[in-house]
Structures are given as structure tokens and as C-alpha cells.
Amino acid sequence: MKKKLSILISMSLSAIMLLSGCASNSSNKAKKDEDQNIFRVGMEAGYAPFNWTQTDSSNGAVKIEGSSEYAGGYDVEIAKKIADGLGKKLVIVKTEWDGLVPAVTSGKIDAIIAGMSPTAKRKETIDFSDNYYKSDLVMVVKKGGKFENADSIQDFAGAKITAQLNTFHYSVIDQIKGVNKQNAMDNFPAMRVALESGMIDGYVSERPEGISAQSANPNFKMIEFKDGFNTSEEDTAIAVGVAKNSGLTEKINEILKGISEEERKEIMDIAIKNQPAAK
């Protein structure tokens, strides 16, 4: 009797383990299938009008993963079009600038759509799509200040100038003779605060962000140059970053071909109009 009971217990345990294993396999398969249907995009969500953070889904903003907040802006609209073209659900992963490339190489995200330029240095680590935007460099200063009427970068001799950390914006400051180059800053909101407080006289940016800055704060002015910075096309162009040999580059390029220059301009104009005033 004891032997029969032992056999029955053993068979029951085996059945339980088998069922548990089947459930686990089914769960893993479901998760894998779900992941395959998701397009995970990394961005700072702090670089208006390319990308920003807001509290609701107005104007087509997308929920940020693991947060009650939403991401909006030009990059988000481009990400939507790419996700639709891929037949996948868009998920926004808010990521610090310095963490974007590691996030895509590690597989945490599928793509970087964050106003990133396809520089030669970055191309050593990741692949890039064709360009989805091209922008000119500007300087953002205080309205009514000493540099309000500047029209050449050399007018900023002696000025306290900065730019975002680990961007080509910071390196071009060296083209200004006699400039008082300040430490690079982590993000654009921090630079706006520094400019407002007088810690700096100006910061290097791109035209869309400059328009954004002066729209958000009447004390700011964007300076467009007659005699500007020397830049290469790879610096001023903006593209989608993906992991090396991921297979996504050609697919994304095909989708980008379907977005005309007129439509891209319209998307940017709407993003500038819709950006949160505080950003």
C-alpha cells in the first residue's frame, strides 16, 4: 500500500511540474510574441520641440514606459510613423542622453529617435538611417542683453557660452575667438535656467530648439548668424540610431522615403506650436 501511495504521489508531482512547465513556456512565448510586436524608442523627452515631457496625451503624445507622463514632439511623431510602417506598437523609453547609445546596443531599446546626429564617432558603435531632419546652429541669448544684436559668432568674444554635454554643439564653441567656454550641461532645461539666472551669456543650439526657447520665454532671443559655425552635414543632420546590423535600417529608410519634406516641415511647425510653455 505504501509503495502504491508513493507511486501516486510521484506521478502527481510529475504532472504538476509538467503543467507548471507548460504554463511557464506559454507565458514566455506570449511575452516573446508581445515583444516582437513592440517598437521601443529611446529619447530624452526634454529637448523641445524635438521631444518633451507632458502630463497628458493631448496633441498625440505617447505614454512614457513606467511613468504617468507622456512624450510629445517632432521625434515622437516621426517615431509613430516608423512604428506604423513596421506594423508595431510604439513604446517610448525616457533615457538620459548619455544612456541612449548604450541602451540601443544592449537591446533595451530598438531605436534612438532623439534629435541625434549621425557623426562618424557614433557610427563606429551604432548604425543610422537616412536623415529625417536637418537643422542650422544658432545661439540663444537674453533679450535686451549685451549680445542681442550679434550676427557673427565672433561677436561672442569674452562671452560665457556653453552647450549640451557630449554633443558637437559643445565642440564648435572653440571656433569663437576669445570665448569664455563654460562647462557643458546635461540638458536644455538646465541651460535655459542658467541663461535666465545670468550664469551664462548664451548656449549653442539648433534652430528648432532656439525657436522653442524664445517662444517659451519672452526674455530669450535666438540669434541666427550671417557668419556662423563651420559644420559638416553629418553634424547638422538628424537620423534614427539602431544597433549594428539590426536589420532595421533599410526598413526605416523605406518608411522615411514616404515622408515628404513638406510634411516634415509641417510636423516641425506643429511641434513648435504645441510644445509646453515650461519646456
Write the H/E string, N to C. Answer: HEEEEHEHEHEEEHEHEHEHEHH
Shape: globular
Strand content: 15-25%
Mean pLDDT: 89
Give me the side-by-side strand order of the main sheet: 10-9-11-8-12
Instruction: Give the number of DSSP strands.
Output: 13
Main β-sheet: number of strands, strand sense, barrel status? Answer: 5 strands, mixed
Structural class: alpha/beta
Show unreliable segments: 26-33
**Alpha-carbon distance between the two ends:** 77 Å
Radius of gyration, in angstroms, nearest whole number: 24 Å
DSSP helix count? 10
Level of helix content?
40-55%
Query: In oligomeric terms, what are we looking at?
Result: single chain
Care to describe what's here?
There is one protein chain. This protein has helices at 2-36, 74-86, 97-106, 120-123, 168-172, 188-197, 207-216, 233-236, 248-257, 261-274; strands at 38-43, 52-54, 62-63, 70-72, 89-94, 111-112, 126-134, 137-142, 160-162, 180-181, 202-206, 220-223, 237-243. By secondary structure, it is an alpha/beta fold. Helix 2 (74-86) packs across helix 9 (248-257). It is globular. Mean pLDDT is 89; it is low at 26-33.
